[in-house]
Write a structure and sequence with these properties.
The protein is α+β, with helices and mostly antiparallel strands. The protein is 24% helix and 36% strand.
């Protein structure tokens, strides 16, 4: 009898950190795929199924989200809840409890998780040199003073 392994495995190592994979493989009874970690927009646990969502596809596997979190740790990923991990590098906008990703995908969070994620995302943007933080209140104050 043939056995098919299900789950995630690191494939290639990231040159900046040799202990982190740059790609992961998803192996199930129906599919085998190799995904770049940078292409992952978010990961969500729904019961026993974990959805690894990229711009192109929603990969579904029977796995524990903690194993995926271990593979993604130390990058631009943030875990606002036990059941979801978002990639800050792929977020386009955050508004009214919704996180919009570059591909058009959307994730919804509750009030506390959204507030926590928005604060962490703001810190992430402030620490990233390629981004500029704009505060609407400062712009309005500058216009009034002129």
């Amino acid at each position: 009898m043939n056995t098919i392994s299900c789950g995630l495995r690191p494939v290639f190592r990231d040159l900046n950190n040799p202990y982190m994979p740059s790609m992961i493989s998803i192996i199930t009874s129906k599919q085998c795929a190799r995904i770049s970690v940078d292409d992952i927009e978010f990961v969500e646990q729904e019961g026993r199924i974990v959805h690894v969502v990229t711009a192109d596809k929603d990969y579904q596997i029977y796995e524990n989200i903690n194993k995926i979190a271990d593979l993604l740790g130390g990058r631009g990923f943030f875990r606002p809840l036990h059941s979801i991990i978002v990639n800050f590098d792929r977020i386009k906008d955050m508004e009214d409890f919704y996180i919009y990703f570059q591909s058009g995908q959307c994730a919804t969070l509750g009030k506390n998780a959204f507030t926590k994620t928005r604060a962490a995302f703001r810190r992430y943007l402030e620490e990233s040199p390629q981004f500029v933080v704009w505060d609407d209140n400062i712009k309005v104050a500058e216009r009034v003073e002129q």
